[in-house]
Amino acid sequence: VSNLSLSQKLIILLIAWVLLSGGGSLSGGVTAVTYVYEKDDIGSVPSHILVALDELNHRTPKIVATPFEDDAVDDGGQVPEQYKIPLTESKAKGSPKSGLLVVLAKERVVRSVTGQDLKTKQDVLDAAK
Amino acid sequence: MNAFSPIDPRLIDAPLDPRLLTDGHSGYPLKMQAQDTIDVVREACGEAAREFPQAMWIEPKDWAKKAKENDELHTWGMNYLDRYTDQSPTHECTTHSLRANAEAARNRQRGIIFQEGPKNGYRYPDSALGGSVWLSCLSIYAEANPGKWGGANVRQVLEIACRRGFLPDKIQPRDYKFKHDLQGTTGNGNNNQSTGSWPSVASFPSGWQETAKHFKPLEVVFPESWEQAVCMVLHGVLVSVGRSGHAIPWAMLQFTGDSLKAAAYPDSYNVTRYDSLSTIKSAWRGAFGIVTMTTPDDWDNPAGV
User: Fold this and answer.
1) What is the ipTM of this complex?
2) Whole-model pTM above 0.90?
3) What 3-state DSSP class applies to B291?
4) Which end of chain A is less congested by CB atoms within 10 angstroms, N or C?
């Protein structure tokens, strides 16, 4: 270590900080899980997805895990800020009729999985890893 | 809470204790109930009104199976309610039913399950964790009936809520730093609902509309049969109805074997009671269920302050 330059040491320290903090897109730490759906397509969110979201909401570090009905808006009639990326991702995937689970690390989409591939609670939990 | 457990027959279609009432009713006299037809209530909702989504339909032969799933996974509408309210001895029942419907919809959107539903005298730690917001029944009722006594139509309270929203109750599960709030009821209230003196709308805190607009029903579904109402409850949506001079929200169903027997509701007297199947079959007219509420940009900052 003593042979490293100051800039090399700083880079190592920066990488270590990002990894240890568990946050940021570099480490892939999940910060939000959103199941985007349309009630006219599926009626309501399947129960096994609801119970998985509840479990994710109890994790540390904090994950905001929610369903999002694609017509819901904020007080100004706009797509709520926190759901803009998941909704865009859903539209990019053709707004799957079975819904789409979008996993975010801050503003980066880690992965998205269609509702038809989420047959059990464990499928949802695995997708959110 | 279990959809297949025996229930106390004294709690089924039980008339309210006369000591809880004023002028013999809780706020939804029969003349008001007769005025609240489906078309009238739907129109009062304006742009928020929605037809029953066909995707919500569940064949009656599959009702018990879906109920078992809701039991196992705790996904009844009752599981999205974290408190009772106590309106006694006021005439505020239509707004207490409405607030339960709205709060359950909002908690469902937040994705937090309350495993045992509302419990008298208890406060869930998850209410704070999940960002549950308790709404003031009075913030709606004070406009619906400026005279305080006599009750309010469903069409009135729903129209007010959809137009300008609820104010938060003065009691909240955590400090959201709301700029505006209001006592929840002029009735008894409880550990999770504030009580206070009668407010006129003119006496609401200045600028209150800025906070209320964050708590509006966005999509309200109107069942067109009692079977559709049952399907909504099976999907975790509360169905608010008025019958026998009292307005309540169905939040869970009760079965004997595969046969539907009753609907459970969190009554606005700190207790769960039940409507029989025959009451379900007659009381669904004028019913509604809130599917989505205004959604915040940040659940930890529900009024964007």
Assistant:
1) 0.94
2) yes
3) strand
4) N
